[in-house]
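Please decode residue identities from the backbone states below.
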């Protein structure tokens, strides 16, 4: 793993209304969007940025988002495409703890989990309007029990006690692997940039910016904690891309997703 490689792991798709994708702009109507995880093979280990959603959880709690996910689009299935198992992951980095970004954490039982300190706190004490976003707490069984919201019985989870490493501020957590604070969507949201030998840096917006159209219009999604901070984070991402000559990779943009190289292909 001397040269860094980046794999995009297809996690299936969900549906929300256009007025949620483009806050107060729309147009209305169902918008199907992708979810995916980012695997970074680095000299210091394997880093997994976000883990998508858990199909059973969405079917039980948010069925109106009409999940489509095959076994190959789960974390174990997607990793198997490149000859890996969840136990091969050294670090899970969560941009934030909304259900569609942490649903596969539970499979990576030996990984250290990295997140913003404010985000871990927010997941335990969300605002009332955030309760569906933070509805999947399987990434932290202790947190689920503390909220008296235990996940469905699963013997495998009895041995899952994740180790958390919380960080704040903009951080280079490994050589060429950067986390940038982009709050607003949630209290402790992170975007990630990966520097590669053979191409421009890849800047993953996560939910600080759903799509190219959101960026072009400077229009945030309706799911946010602080709309003013959300807009500032859009500008920060745009400035970071210019400063580092980085290519932006959006979290929930089906049109852009069609152009991305998916695993087992990779960027390097």
């Amino acid at each position: 793993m001397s040269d860094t490689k980046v794999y995009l792991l297809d996690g299936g798709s969900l549906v929300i209304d256009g007025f949620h994708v483009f806050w107060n702009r729309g147009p209305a109507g169902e918008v199907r969007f992708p979810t995916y995880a980012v695997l970074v093979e680095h000299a210091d280990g394997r880093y997994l940025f976000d883990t998508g959603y858990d199909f059973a959880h969405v079917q039980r709690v948010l069925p109106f988002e009409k999940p489509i996910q095959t076994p190959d689009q789960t974390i174990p299935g997607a990793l198997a495409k490149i000859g890996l198992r969840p136990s091969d992951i050294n670090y899970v980095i969560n941009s934030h703890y909304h259900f569609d970004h942490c649903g596969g954490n539970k499979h990576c039982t030996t990984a250290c989990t990295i997140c913003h300190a404010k985000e871990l706190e927010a997941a335990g004490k969300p605002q009332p309007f955030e309760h569906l976003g933070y509805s999947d707490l399987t990434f932290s069984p202790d947190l689920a029990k503390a909220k008296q919201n235990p996940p469905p019985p699963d013997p495998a989870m009895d041995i899952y006690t994740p180790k958390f490493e919380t960080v704040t501020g903009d951080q280079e957590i490994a050589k060429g692997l950067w986390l940038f604070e982009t709050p607003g969507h949630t209290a402790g949201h992170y975007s990630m940039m990966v520097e590669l030998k053979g191409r421009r840096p890849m800047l993953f917006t996560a939910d600080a910016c759903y799509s190219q159209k959101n960026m072009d219009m400077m229009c945030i999604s309706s799911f946010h904690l602080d709309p003013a901070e959300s807009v500032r984070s859009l500008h920060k991402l745009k400035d970071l891309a210019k400063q580092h000559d980085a290519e932006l990779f959006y979290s929930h943009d089906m049109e852009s997703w069609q152009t991305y190289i998916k695993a087992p292909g990779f960027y390097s």
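Observation: The CA atoms of residues 197 and 268 lie 6 Å apart.
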